[in-house]
Amino acid sequence: MSTNVTIVSRRGFLENVFSAGALILGAQLPIPAEAAKVDSAAWNPSVYLGLEKDGSVIIVTHRSEMGTGIRSVLPMVLADELDADWSRVKIEQAIGDAKYGSQNTDGSCSIRDFLEAMHVAGATARTMLEAAAAKQWNVPASECKASNHQIVHSKSNRKAGFGELVALAAKQPKPDPKSLQFKSPDQYKYIGKNLPMIDSEDIVTGKGTFGMDAKVPGMVYASIERSPVFGGKVKKFDDAEARKTKGVLQVETLDAFKPPHVFQQLGGVAVIANNTWAAMQGRKKLKVDWEQSPHAAYESQAYKRSLQETARKPQKAVRIIGDVDKALASAAKTHEAEYYVPLLAHASMEPPASVAEFKDGKVTAWAATQNPQAVQEAVAGAMGLKKEDVTCHVTLLGGGFGRKSKPDYVVEAAMLSKKVGKPVKVVWSREEDIRFDYYHACAAMYMKAGLDAKGKPTSWLHRSVFPSIGTTFDHTARYAMDLEMGMGWNDLPYDIPNHRAENGPAENHVRIGWLRSVAHIYHAFAIHSFVDELAAAANRDRVEYLLDLIGPGRKLNIQPEGMKYWNNDQPQEKYPVDTARLRRVIELAAEKSGWGKKKNLGIAAHRSFLSYIAAVAEVEVENGKIRIPRITYAVDAGTTIHPDRVKSQFEGASVFGTSIALFGEITARDGKIVQSNYHDYKVARIHEAPIETQVHVIPSRELPAGVGEPGVPPIPPAIANALFAATGKRVRDLPIKSV
Amino acid sequence: MIKLKVNGVSRQFDGDPDMPLLWYLRDEISLTGTKFSCGMGLCGSCTVHVNGAATRACVTPMKSMEGKAVLTIEGLSAKGDHPVQKAWKTCAVAQCGYCQPGQIMQAAALLKQKPKPSDKDIDDAMQGNICRCGTYQRIRQAVKLAAGVKA
């Protein structure tokens, strides 16, 4: 098992793509497998682009589609820069292949990392088509212009379609990326417009193919019984009744993973059948004895207390400014509080599912995956193959939220296919999805501030303690990864002379993974709730207090202790923490939400994935029930491409954040997860979600930043702060069980 | 032998009579537009119409289907132009899209019963259908658009 299948592997990628358009375009790369059926005279000026002689433009989309629209939106950029006719563009979903760079659709980075590559690919092909036309007509290239799938020479009124020019264009020298001419924004036809997503017709007619829908000839179905306690191994099992179930073909064991678990199979007993229902029924009839797991004593309440006790004691400092202890000792007043966020599950509507076929020493998989290259590595590692011998086709994803970056379910299908000698489809039930997730970490946070006469902090101490995602890759890890501390914790952007951030150790007893906005969730909840408490203690307006706390607009230089400032792996010179942008979204959200005119409002403003987001929640409480009439967002995500898909991501984040605030809680007893389905792991339904989410996006030419995740972190604290405003009750533990 | 109609086509089933309609549709006759998500009738992803009524296919055993007529998302309209489908496209409701066939079938059943639904009617009818992407605001808009009522 290679351990470089981590978030680490996609870091530092931006420079590779952006500074080296030549890296992508300089070499004649092999024709993508999807485009192999294309006429051999077709021309592939980049890994993302092919042109057929009939004029069709094929754009290879290498990002996974889980609802952000990225599979449509990045190709729109390329088509726009090429001046292609969108109706003649065919989108091909890339298989997993390192030639595309990172395909891990995660971390809200697709536009940030690939926007320029799309522009470069489109402009390069356009330039070569123009050069081809110039040669054909014996006129200067500067007089030949692309216009809606043709090259036009207006002086002589000559036109040639892209298809006619393909053969000649392929013989033109590739232009120096530095010489490329890009469209100006007023020339855009697709960028900034709200074109429909390419999958929208298939989705409303039921034709969209998700991982759950993949089907290949001769395929059988598998349902797997896994250890209810993490790390449990099969001691013995009785499959007599399972085998008698109508439709059941055979029963196979899967070995347990070897630590660290990474993306390996959990292991267990698999029932293979000729349909999903039979496999599931057979699996329920298995009688499996499990060996005792060291995690069998895991109990959520006791674990919570241990995290809280750790958070009350001095821990490893991860950022130090000034002298917090001295400032606290001399402060006129101090304020302290503890916050807690429980384990959370992803609960995507599509449970994990994959088809895999092992044949002649190679594996072909069809999977709902955020990261097909991780599929290649994980399957190859589990089966002793070379990565190149694993082909991963990417289907639509029925939600991902980080869960589907981890391809353990594809590994299961591949291993079973080898045992059965047929293609195998592994289907996880909802119960398995909830009980065997890579959970979002539970976290205990301790906060203490020393205050001046106006109630503004002169010192700020915060500790956070949680099991780290790092345990996925190193099971002995006890402290947070750089990225976890860099998510809204050691990069606190406030104007406070004495600041110390600390991180304490925690063991993991389940698999811990990243969930939409990751460590920002608990850090934002603690920080923005605490700010609200301090403002309340000072009896000051929250918005005015927050702006005072942030201080004047400036670019910070974050220097943590003993670790690198994560900053989404972007240099701070390029993507600084800019408090002016943070102030601006706060001011805009306040203005648009009617701040000051209503009492039941709460605000939180948070920088994540390099974007600046403020959210104002409006709540109403009736008979102990919380209703959220409105969430008002102000968003600064830098350059954006598709206004409506940006808006929709925030509408969705508002609901996702509401689920975290009001409902989400995974607990364990005797090492086993208690919850199992949507009745006891609740997510917001239509009547519980915010009735209206307003999204105000600041027009910007700044570098592109994240959109998919940044809407989530401010929502739980904004709701909790609004509840305090409405009821006077302070929420310090999520979910908010009663009012 | 169980006889039923699916999207107007007569079918026969002689497998496990306890098998839910969902798995018959998906695995046996490859109508995968009807989605599996919770398996307990909790989320609405598998919503189809049985004799015109919105029904959770995941908890509807085949033995109860004798003589019934099933309509799935694939049969809702010939060209994807049912008013609900059109409204869904106009409002760009879908994000990941997995729950949307179920949402659309639920909304189509609602409009048959209540052609001009109120906000409360929509909440009542649609609250059995979960969307984890959180498209509820647009679902409400799209139902109103399909019904021709003011948003």
Helix/strand layout:
The complex is a heterodimer of chains A (739) and B (151).
Chain A: H1 13-19, H2 21-25, E1 43-46, E2 49-51, E3 57-61, H3 70-82, E4 89-93, H4 110-137, E5 144-147, E6 150-153, E7 158-161, H5 162-169, H6 200-205, E8 220-225, E9 234-238, H7 240-244, E10 248-254, E11 268-273, H8 276-284, E12 287-290, H9 300-311, E13 316-321, H10 324-330, E14 333-341, E15 353-359, E16 362-367, H11 372-383, E17 390-394, H12 408-420, E18 424-427, H13 430-435, E19 443-451, E20 457-465, H14 482-485, E21 498-504, H15 520-537, H16 542-550, E22 555-556, E23 577-578, H17 579-593, E24 601-608, E25 611-622, E26 625-636, H18 643-662, E27 668-669, E28 672-673, E29 692-697, H19 715-727
Helix pairs in contact in A: 1-4, 3-4, 4-5, 11-12, 15-19, 18-19
Chain B: E1 2-6, E2 9-13, H1 21-28, E3 47-50, E4 53-56, E5 69-71, H2 83-90, H3 100-113, H4 119-126, H5 136-147
Overall number of domains of chain B: 2
Radius of gyration of chain A: 27 Å
At the fold tier of CATH, the topology name of the largest domain in chain B is Ubiquitin-like (UB roll)
The portion of residues forming beta strands of chain A comes to 15-25%
Q: Into which percent range does the helicity of residues of chain B fall? A: 25-40%
CATH superfamily of the largest domain in chain B: Beta-grasp domain
- The quaternary state of the protein chains shown equals heterodimer
What fold name stands as the CATH topology of the largest domain in chain A?
Answer: Aldehyde Oxidoreductase, domain 4
Q: What order do the SSEs of chain B take from the amino end to the carboxyl end, as H and E? A: EEHEEEHHHH
Could you give the order of strands across the largest sheet of chain B? 2-1-5-3-4
Overall mean pLDDT score of chain B? 97
Greatest interface by residues involved? A-B, 68 and 60 residues
Q: What is the CATH C level class of the largest domain in chain B, in words?
A: Alpha Beta
User: CATH homologous superfamily of the largest domain in chain A, by name?
Assistant: Aldehyde oxidase/xanthine dehydrogenase, molybdopterin binding domain
Distance between the termini of chain A: 48 Å
What number of domains of chain A?
3
Mean pLDDT across all amino acids of chain A:
93
Q: Give the class of chain B from helix and strand content and strand pairing.
A: alpha+beta
